[in-house]
Design goal:
The complex is a heterodimer. Helices cover 73% and strands 2% of the residues of chain A. Chain A is mainly α. In chain A, helix 1 (3-34) packs parallel to helix 5, helix 2 crosses helix 8 (186-212) and helix 9 (221-232) runs parallel beside helix 11 (266-281). Chain B has one domain: Rossmann fold, CATH 3.40.50.300. Chain B has a 6-stranded mixed β-sheet with strand order 6-7-8-3-9-10, with helices on both faces. A 4-stranded antiparallel β-sheet of chain B has the order 2-1-4-5, with helices on one face. The radius of gyration of chain B is 18 Å and the shape is globular. Chain B starts with 10 loop residues before the first strand and ends in an 11-residue tail after the last helix. Classes of the chains: A mainly alpha, B alpha/beta. Chain B: Residues 1-252 form the ABC transporter domain.
């Protein structure tokens, strides 16, 4: 296999990987504030894509306005979900909270199926599908645009966590009782993280909707997103970025080797292997937070 | 923390026959009445499990985090009943509780720990000058303000916990076992600083301590709590002279078991 082909696989894998990271960012934001992996993140992403389509096709909004409006709608939807479904769960066993997010996932998938049906719709962002050549390497324009959006969001969130509001959110994820003791509203902080994760769901819903069409399968991004988040350490934004790139590259390069041997379908096997080995060998992920032990 | 508070009449904090129930069944304190005068320093003494921490949590509102609630009696701050307001509302009123075991934000730097506690209403300039004031009181923190708080020594973490509380602009500072697990010279240093802040700003202090000897040196009054009840209330001098106190809390104060000193953290996280 020649080096140009290999680097093409790697670069495109990395771009796709950044889109996994974008999805995983939503998981990380919620995990950071409330220590629960949000199993409804895939459904939220799909819901966001459907809302964009509904606003632009059914109500005739221009696409940019539909996306902006969806961002606002989803932000408040995120706040609402936290307030209605999760706040009352505070202090319950983590598995119950996990089941609550699973229930939300099933609920959102069921409702979108009932309202919009099962046929796949296209997002039609207007990004050309003509190949883009970077030297000898062939790139996908939509993946490149998506990776750009992902990087912009990462930078925005990294900066946000240096602001006073951001520091307070990090304090909550460190110790919520201590946060209460100095007057931080833990409830508002957790709600804010749900709102932000829902905004991330809009970005990833629009981009993934463009790539693979808007239908129920969009919610299955959760599996790759969770793999990336776990590998990155669940509460680390930088970890999610690097883990996404890693998974994207390994998946793309690995499957092009393996598919010729096993005859296709090795992508999912690679993802599964990464998840299983992470949990077995490095449960804190690459950049997950250990409890600090002083000697 | 205005000096004129010192001259106001009436206590800044009064608790009147307060009872606390955990999980709606377990009675943790059974009618505690205490007062802290404006600008005064008062200690709550007593053995492990006597109800000292519960008393502080009833005042700061942190009981809710442990499924506890005030089932009888009332707590007044500055003359007003605080009822069942949220912890953050009480911090806004000027009550700040330095919880037991330091509990600094380990993955934040000391600087960020202080910033997290600054009220959002403070301007950036005020936050910076308040931080400078804290570093002035605790120069050791200033030297280490960019390393992670989790790597500070026990004494430094306690200083950070107190500094963090001071950032909330309290008028009543409640300290739960600030001497726990610290070397005696550090305890003396920290108590000296608390006394200085009390003197400079008229900050009222309610101190919970098992180390009665150190506590009675800096406070004016003390309450002795046993089995959830106040069993004695007197000036610090007279408590120090009291033979029962000497026997149970002063002489025996040093010989703590390893279990008390090594403070294992089995911390619960939000929603876990």
């Amino acid at each position: 296999m020649d080096i140009a082909y290999l680097s093409e696989l790697a670069v495109n894998g990395a771009l796709t990987g950044l889109l996994y990271s974008l999805f995983a960012l939503g998981l990380v934001l919620i995990y950071k504030s409330s220590s629960v992996p949000n199993l409804a993140q895939g459904a939220l992403t799909m819901l966001a894509a459907y809302v964009v389509l509904a606003l632009s096709r059914q109500l005739g909004f221009p696409l940019w306005l539909a996306i902006a409006a969806t961002t606002i709608i989803m932000f408040f939807a995120g706040l609402g979900v936290e307030k209605v479904a999760l706040r009352r769960m505070a202090g319950r066993p983590i598995v119950m909270i996990l089941m609550m997010t699973l229930g939300l996932d099933i609920f959102i998938r069921g409702s979108t199926l009932a309202v919009w049906g099962g046929t796949s719709r296209s997002m039609e962002l207007g990004i050309s599908y003509d190949p883009l050549f970077l030297g000898p390497i062939l790139l996908s324009r939509i993946n490149l645009a998506g990776a750009g959006v992902a990087i912009a969001l990462f930078v925005a969130f990294l900066l946000f966590f240096r602001t006073r509001h951001g520091i307070r959110l990090r304090a909550i994820s460190d110790d919520y009782i201590a946060s209460w003791s100095i007057g931080i509203s833990v409830e508002h902080g957790v709600a804010l993280s749900w709102g932000m994760a829902s905004v991330v769901a809009v970005a990833s819903g629009v981009i993934w909707g463009e790539i693979q069409g808007v239908d129920q399968s969009l919610s299955q991004l959760l599996l790759k997103g969770l793999t990336v988040a776990v590998l990155g350490g669940l509460d680390s934004i930088a970890g999610a970025i690097l883990a996404g790139i890693f998974l994207g590259v390994v998946e793309n390069v690995g499957s092009s080797y393996l598919d010729s041997i096993v005859g296709g379908g090795s992508r999912d096997l690679i993802v599964a292997a990464v998840l299983i080995f992470t949990v077995m060998l490095r449960p804190h992920g690459l950049f997950g937070r250990h409890d600090i032990e002083r000697v | 923390m205005k000096p004129e508070d010192v001259h106001k009449s009436g206590p800044i904090l009064s608790m009147n026959s307060v009872e606390v129930l955990y999980n709606s069944v377990m009675l943790a304190i059974k009618g505690v009445s205490i007062e802290v005068p404006h600008g005064g320093m008062v200690a709550l003494l007593g053995s492990n499990g006597a109800g000292k921490s519960t008393t502080l949590k009833a005042i700061s509102g942190l009981l809710t985090a442990e499924r506890g609630k005030v089932s009888r009696g009332e707590i007044r701050f500055d003359g007003n009943v605080i009822g069942d307001s949220l912890p953050q509302e009480r911090v806004e009123l000027g009550i700040c509780h330095v919880i037991e075991g330091r509990r600094v934000f380990e993955h934040l730097t000391p600087d960020e720990n202080l910033e997290a506690a600054a009220p959002m209403s403070l301007s950036r300039g005020r936050v910076a000058s308040e931080k400078a004031r804290i570093y002035d009181y605790f120069p050791r923190l200033g030297e280490r303000k960019t390393s992670l708080a989790g790597y500070l020594s026990g004494g430094e973490q306690q200083m950070l916990a107190i500094g963090r509380a001071l950032m909330t602009q309290p008028r009543l500072l409640m300290l739960d076992e600030p001497s726990l697990g610290l070397a005696p010279f550090l305890v003396a240093e920290i108590f000296e600083i608390i006394k200085r802040i009390n003197r400079d700003h008229g900050l009222s202090v309610l101190l919970v301590e098992q180390n009665a000897l150190a506590a009675l040196d800096i406070v004016s009054h003390g309450y002795l709590i046993e089995n959830g009840r106040v069993v004695m209330h007197d000036t610090a001098e007279r408590l120090k002279a009291n033979s029962d106190i000497q026997e149970f809390y002063l002489g025996g104060g040093q010989a703590r078991s390893f279990h008390d000193i090594k403070h294992y953290r089995r911390r619960k996280r939000w929603l876990s």
